[in-house]
Amino acid sequence: MREICQSVETIFQLLLDELKKSTRASEQNCRDVAGRLAAEVNRICTESQRIQASGDIEGSAQSLAQHRLQQCLHYYNLGSGPGRVELHSTLSAIVYRYITPPQVQSSYQARVELIKDFLQGFYLEALKAFRRETQLPPTYSPRTRLELAEYMAFVERFGKRRIPLPRNRSQQLIILRAQTFSQQQPKETSVDMEQAADGGASDSDQTWNDTSVHSVREAMAGQGSAAIRPLGDESESLRQNVIDELVAYLKERNQQDCADYFVLRLQDLPTNEIESLLGITPRQRDYLQQRFKYHLLRFAMSHRWELVHQWLEA
């Protein structure tokens, strides 16, 4: 018989007090959300073999409760619109490399459209899972700012859940869903979407594929070949303009961690040193790298594509 977390009421009161102090939600709204979060913490502590064997179930419960609370408050403080953008950006960065069928050379814009289609379906799946796990009616939808923040925090955790696979492997749920989604896309559909997104792309429009983006990254780091790296003061000035504008672009979109990662990459530091300087784990660095690549693509192919083209003499 597994030991059940004995401090459900204590956890509930802690969450309730913090929600009342940190939000403008009504008393009942705070109670509802705090109750659901406390129940989730209790369920995890009860079902987790690792927590049960740790000998510190109460400490684990406190840590889980604080983590859930901070996630919820993060999205609450962002608000409805920016919160949705943040969630979409986070999940897009995770699935970006998995969302295009391998037999199709999709453009960046076509892949973005596929990601949008995929995430719309994933948000609905997450809402159904949220209703099921919190024992809410099948008609429930978040209405208040706090409820929406609770749901968005759940979606992020739901997508990042590790699913066990054969041979002692595991993978994040959202990546498995993205792979299935991509495999279900017929080649003709992907081509049609690409042409629609590009307005009828010609051969010259295929310049901006993953190879070109790799060239941009190499050139920014000063490691590109002479074929893609112009020489002289003018090219150096252009390179610095690209760097300055990309850093400003990231900061304007509240992506300071991506900007910091970019600056460290420019110094050609080893991966473990970058992780140490940023205070992140290898897994967190991988997420950050994917998110940076996502924003780099947006910058290079839509925001300031003329400047990047000029610099690379495209």
Describe the structure.
The chain is mostly helical. The protein folds into 3 domains: 1-77, no CATH class; 79-198, no CATH class; 207-312, no CATH class. It has helices spanning 8-22, 27-47, 49-54, 57-78, 80-95, 108-133, 145-160, 173-183, 187-198, 210-220, 233-252, 256-266, 271-278, 282-303, 305-312, and strands spanning 162-165, 169-172. A two-stranded antiparallel ribbon has the order 1-2. A hairpin with a 3-residue loop joins strand 1 and strand 2 (169-172). Helix 5 (80-95) packs across helix 6 and helix 11 (233-252) packs antiparallel against helix 15 (305-312). The N and C termini lie far apart (67 Å).
Question: What is the gist of this entry?
Answer:
The chain is mostly helical and 314 residues long.
Mean pLDDT: 78
Q: What about the largest sheet? A: 2 strands, antiparallel
Number of domains: 3
Poorly predicted regions are 1-5, 188-212, 223-231
How much of the sequence lies in strands comes to under 5%
Order of helices and strands: HHHHHHHEEHHHHHHHH
Write down the overall geometry.
globular
Please list the strands of the largest sheet in the order they lie side by side.
1-2
Fraction of helical residues: over 70%
The count of strands amounts to 2
**How large is the count of helical segments?**
15
Oligomeric status of the shown chains?
single chain
List keywords for this structure.
314 residues, mainly alpha, 3 domains, two-stranded antiparallel sheet, globular
Write the layout of secondary structure elements.
Elements: H1 8-22, H2 27-47, H3 49-54, H4 57-78, H5 80-95, H6 108-133, H7 145-160, E1 162-165, E2 169-172, H8 173-183, H9 187-198, H10 210-220, H11 233-252, H12 256-266, H13 271-278, H14 282-303, H15 305-312
Helix pairs in contact: 1-2, 1-4, 2-4, 4-5, 4-7, 5-6, 5-7, 5-14, 6-7, 6-9, 11-12, 11-15, 12-14, 14-15
